[in-house]
Design brief:
With 288 residues, the chain is an alpha+beta fold. Helices cover 40% and strands 17% of the residues. Strands 3, 4, 5, 6 and 7 form a five-stranded antiparallel sheet that branches. A two-stranded parallel sheet has the order 1-2. Helix 3 crosses helix 4. It starts with a helix and ends in an 8-residue tail after the last strand. The C terminus is likely disordered.
Length: 288
């Protein structure tokens, strides 16, 4: 109620580091808690929120009247960010209506998976940005204002285009395996937008990522990458290797600030000569 909101507002105003942040609850339309929780998480992801609000300003300047899931999300974020009061509730009715219209999977009163919705929303936003980029390129080409030197900037395909969604959320997972017999190292890079990690009680995100990237020892038939190893060929059940992962993010998770690389895990597998078990060198690195 109003009294609880006033109490919360007084507590927030007393916080020294709260700045001018807005804390608004989202009205639940029957089963939309999955959607509201994702929107709340994205709103408080500062780089994402800043990009969405910038997009809203671009819409204002262009006078565009288009409506899609991205414009509805931009309107919702703008509505929250421009409220006079710092706490309260907002009904994301327009966004929910558009969501149900765009995807029949969400057009019901069944419980939905928040993770699936997050993936759908991020993919939809990214695809919309790519389509708008292509439309702008086509418009400039029709008007004859696109110079030859800038064609490469606008050239794109849905499979290779990167947007600020990728800048914020995409990371690279480098899986490395080191044979403890021949010391050969194999590695494979995979891009990802999310990771499934085990969450321990009272554990930080950093801790969860470090646990995710811990090494494991492989033995016998598990040592498939090293079939050329003479020890594996002669004694396959005695062969062993160590596998681990390096997680690279395009944004610093500590500050949620400007894009930079934040690494967990391993830059390279370093053999511990005392017991022949490869150990990870963990480090955090940023651009110079």
């Amino acid at each position: 109620g109003a009294s609880s909101s006033s109490q919360l507002e007084r507590e927030i105003n007393g916080e020294p580091h709260s700045g001018n942040e807005h804390y608004y609850g989202l009205v639940n339309f029957g089963n939309t808690c999955y959607c509201n929780s994702v929107i709340q998480a994205l709103y408080f992801c500062r780089p994402f929120r800043e990009k969405i609000l910038q997009y809203k300003q671009q819409l204002k300047k262009s006078g565009s009247q288009k409506e899609n899931l991205l414009t509805c999300l931009a309107d919702l974020f703008h509505n929250i960010a421009t409220q006079k009061r710092r706490v309260g509730t907002i009904a994301p009715k327009r966004f929910i209506t558009k969501l149900k219209k765009e995807n029949e999977l969400f057009d019901n009163y069944m419980q939905q998976d928040a993770h699936e919705f997050l993936n759908y929303l991020l993919n939809t936003v990214s695809e919309t940005l790519i389509e708008e980029k292509k439309a702008e390129r086509d418009r400039l080409m029709r008007n004859g204002t696109l110079r030859k030197g800038t064609v490469g900037v606008f050239a794109s395909s849905s499979k290779t285009d990167k947007t600020w969604i990728h800048e914020i959320f995409q990371g690279t997972l480098t899986n490395e395996t080191r044979c403890l017999c021949c010391e050969t190292v194999s590695s494979k890079d995979e891009d990802f937008l999310d990771l499934s990690v085990d969450i321990d009680q009272n554990a930080s995100i950093t801790h969860c990522l470090r646990v995710f990237s811990e090494t494991e020892t492989l033995c016998g038939d598990q040592v498939l990458p090293f079939l050329h190893c003479s020890n594996y060929v002669s004694q396959p059940f005695s062969a062993s290797a160590v596998r681990g992962a390096c997680i690279k993010f395009g944004i610093d998770l500590r500050s949620q600030g400007s894009p930079r690389f934040h690494l967990f895990g391993v830059g390279r597998l370093v053999p511990d000569l005392s017991n022949r078990i490869a150990a990870f060198t963990r480090f955090i690195s940023g651009p110079p």
